[in-house]
Design a protein that fits this description.
Blueprint lengths: L4 H4 L11 H7 L4 E5 L4 E3 L7 E7 L2 E5 L6 E6 L4 E2 L1 H5 L7 E4 L3 E7 H8 L3 H23 L5 H16 L1 E3 L2 E4 L5 H7 L4 H13 L4 E3 L2 E4 L2 H7 L3
Antiparallel strand pairs: 1-8, 2-7, 3-6, 3-8, 4-5, 4-7, 9-10, 10-12, 11-12
Helix pairs in contact: 6-9, 7-8
């Protein structure tokens, strides 16, 4: 049992649907693990044995590809990673890597299912929450279509919606991503990402700063997606 696991349930929206007694059922089988920046949380192809949630930091999920790796998603505080593979009894279809020092709440599959087995209402609520994340990943894959400019615009709009802060007509995204990260997230080359972001910087569409991105006109960027 991890004595520090129970307080971390508060950081996970999925567990906020559970009452105090239900959380206490999961606490003894949960553990909290700290990862350094760049450290793997799980690797593509490995058996999905643990249900994992980000409680501190940010994690990227990366799919290996012949020409270049593709980042399928960025996960922040409270979000599950690798949940679909675990529930389907499959191997992880992609790797999870800490983008920054991160703390992960891990619950082993066998113990998790043994704990919730006698609580059908608890099971239903948990499954509903986990499936919402799968729908988001499906939408993310659909975003990898169209021109490079459209794909990068969709990426930044998605990040603005998830972790950004609206400021009048614009928004800021407090997340530092390299041009290589942007290329990986949009299935393009780093040269293309540099070209688009440099042009947008000159045109005041998206400004890259030391702590993230600034979007002066949110609707102008939205118009570039053609959606």
């Amino acid at each position: 049992m991890s004595a520090s696991a129970l307080p971390h349930f508060d950081a996970v929206p999925l567990f906020q649907c559970l009452n105090a007694d239900e959380r206490k059922l999961l606490a003894p089988v949960s553990r909290v693990v700290v990862y350094e920046k760049g450290e793997e949380i799980f690797r593509e192809g490995n058996p999905a044995t643990d249900l994992c949630f980000v409680v501190i930091g940010r994690v990227k999920v990366v799919k290996a590809a012949p020409e270049r790796d593709v980042i399928l998603g960025l996960f922040g505080v409270g979000e599950p990673i690798g949940a679909v593979a675990l529930f389907e009894g499959k191997r992880f279809p992609a790797s999870a890597v800490a983008l920054e020092p991160s703390t992960i709440l891990r619950i082993p599959e066998r113990e998790f299912f043994a704990t919730i087995d006698g609580h059908p209402e608890m099971t239903r609520r948990l499954l509903q929450g986990l499936m919402l994340r799968q729908f988001e990943i499906s939408r993310r894959l659909a975003d990898l279509t169209g021109s490079v400019e459209k794909r990068i615009a969709r990426l930044l709009l998605m990040l603005a919606a998830r972790v950004g802060q609206r400021e009048g007509e614009g928004a800021t995204i407090p997340l530092v991503l390299s041009r290589q990260d942007i290329a990986d997230l949009t299935a393009t080359t780093v040269e293309s990402a540099i070209r688009v972001m440099s042009r947008w910087g000159k045109e005041n569409v998206v400004i890259t700063g030391p702590e993230g991105f600034s979007i002066p006109d949110f609707h102008a960027l939205q118009a570039l997606t053609g959606d």
